[in-house]
Amino acid sequence: VHQNLGHALMMQGTYGEAAEAYANATKNEPTNAKLFLYLGNASLLQMRKGDNPSVAKTNCMAAYSTAAKLEPKSLDVRLRYGEALMDMREYDDAIAQFRTATTIDPNRYEGHYNLAQSIAAKLKAAKTGGGAVDPDGKLAKETLDEFQKAVSLASKAEEIRDSLLGLGLYQGFRQQYPESEKTFARLTSEYPQYTDGWVNLGFIRLKQMPPNYDGAIQAGEAGLKKVTEPAGQAKIYRMLGSVYIEQATPNLKFGDKLVQITFIDKAQLAFKQAINVSANDSEAQHGLGLAAIW
After folding, report:
1. Is the peptide bond preceding residue 30 cis, with omega within 30 degrees of 0?
2. pTM for the complete prediction?
């Protein structure tokens, strides 16, 4: 009865009440790992919703921990537990859960993809905080290996797309710009209507030394021909606006005012086009304001 009530409440989006129902169910069946998994899932969604998050977090961690003890070889438990730990930025513990997931089923995409994401998140957090957690580069190599395994194991279009995106972003974070460009080029080739492929291809070309402005603009213009969703088009226009502003910067330093004005005009036009296709695009409005004060 409590389990069915929990399912019904989950469908209604009342996650706190669902968690309470599952908690009551676990009292009747304290060795049922699935019930603790359900309780963890409901508590995680309750926490994300901001409904009594402190209590929800405690319940979530306790439920997943119990589920893992009851069913240590459950792939679903390890994956959900790891996702919850990622939400809480407990990267080391998340990595441990995802590593276990890859040993439970080495041929499942999800374990490798999430393991790569969790290690990448740890490395990015360490870089932001000025820490050194990977002096020998082993974690960096493991991250790339896991992303590549995820790409090779993915069977659904969405999984392949997400794996390529994650791999490209991580290569960019590691300043492996040629490799990142190849990954995003593949992403745009295989998923031409996927906005983030074109946007990141443009930005990664912008990060090269010297910046490949023409290549970035070509990526944006090609993407506009493929992406039909207004929000996606707006995102590409914003990228183009940013490219034009970056292109104006060297001319500002060297005093070529006429060339600078040309690029700023192009930037303003790009941001206006973003607003035309997506009127409430606050980032485009900000970009337009930034270009206007040059």
Report:
1. no
2. 0.83
